[in-house]
Amino acid sequence: MNTPLCKYLRTKKMFVPVHEAEALTEAAEAGTEADAFYWCNCTLSEIGADDKPAHLRACIPGRICFKE
To answer: How far is CA 12 from the centre of its chain?
Structure first.
């Protein structure tokens, strides 16, 4: 996945030290992102600051709340 993701996007895998580095890239490449749960670290919920879902495919440039 070459599209930059919002720095506030989170998933549980990011908190497992051996998986931290590939937490977001591996899911995108394997197409397994549907199985993962994502949240916005600003709102601490599955809804981002712009009231839209936080997701690997949604938290990209062009979104109002996106931060690189």
So the answer is: 10
**For the chain, which residues make up each domain, given as ranges?**
1-68
pTM for this model (two decimals): 0.77
What is the token pair recorded at 65? Answer: 């709340």
List the alpha helices (DSSP H) in the chain: 25-30
Say if residues 42 and 49 touch (Cβ distance below 8 Å). yes
Cα angle, residue 29 at apex, residues 23 and 30 outer, rounded to 5° = 90
Per-residue pLDDT tens over the stretch 25-40: 755 555 555 567 899 9
User: Could you give the CA distance from residue 68 to residue 6 in angstroms, rounded to a whole number?
Assistant: 5
8 vs 58: CA distance, rounded Å: 12
**How far from 10 is each of 26, 28, CA to CA, in Å?**
14, 14
